[in-house]
Design a protein that fits this description.
Largest sheet: none
Shape: globular
Radius of gyration: 21 Å
Number of strands: 0
Distance between the termini: 47 Å
Order of helices and strands: HHHHHHHHHH
Length: 224
């Protein structure tokens, strides 16, 4: 039990200063990068614009007409999640996206916004989504119940997916690094090589999970 407590303590947002200052990791991008980098043409700004364009081309086909107006929100969300996911791989930097409170706070407002807007805008259209075409009469009440539950748990599934992938990767890195204490000195190079490969994999997972969350959010909003 003590071993599991120590293992999961890497996700505890506690600070030796007596306050939960690790949450400041979410704003490190603003602190590290001067505001000048965002306003003056530079390589950093060019990279951000390139990421925005590539991401927009990916989600543009599944966006609704109204969704294209607010596409900048989804692009900013992608960049924010990607930055926090990758920043969490830096030693001694807390991974904010490994906590359900943060991921749920990102997924819930967007879902609540376009979900409530859809019901107010076109009630009949939203009701039609609860009843797939061709459903037998006997199954209609069950389909309405299933589709309603499916719509209500969407922000939770988005949050849990991102949180679980971040936790799994960090736990794997922690377990592999702890193997150095068990194996002999000759196995250190193997453990280091495995760690390097896992870090590269985690960078890919960080980008993929950011992409998945944003694409699913756009897909849900396109139903409105």
């Amino acid at each position: 039990m003590a071993m599991m407590t120590n293992l999961f303590s890497v996700f505890d947002p506690a600070s030796s200063l007596g306050a939960s200052l690790n949450w400041i990791s979410m704003s490190l991008g603003i602190l590290i990068l001067p505001s000048m980098k965002w306003s003056i043409n530079s390589r950093w700004l060019g990279l951000i614009v390139l990421i925005f364009k590539k991401m927009y081309q990916e989600v543009k086909p599944i966006m609704s007409k109204e969704g294209k107006i607010t596409s900048i929100i989804f692009m900013a969300l992608f960049l924010f999640i990607l930055f926090n996911n990758i920043l969490g791989l830096v030693p001694y930097v807390f991974t904010a996206t490994s906590h359900f409170m943060i991921t749920f706070s990102l997924a819930l407002p967007l879902w609540l916004g376009y979900f409530s807007f859809g019901w107010v805008k076109d009630f009949k259209w939203m009701m039609a989504h609860l009843m797939p075409q061709g459903t037998p009469t006997v199954l209609m009440p069950f389909m309405v119940l299933i589709e309603s539950v499916s719509s209500l748990i969407r922000p939770g599934t988005l949050a849990v997916r991102l949180m679980a992938n971040m936790i799994a990767g960090h736990l794997l890195l922690t377990l592999v690094s702890s193997a150095i204490q068990v194996f002999s000195i000759y196995s250190v190079m193997g453990v280091v090589l495995a760690q390097v490969m896992l870090v590269v994999l985690e960078v890919a997972v960080a980008a993929i999970q950011s992409y998945v969350l944003v694409v699913l959010s756009v897909l849900y909003s396109s139903e409105v």
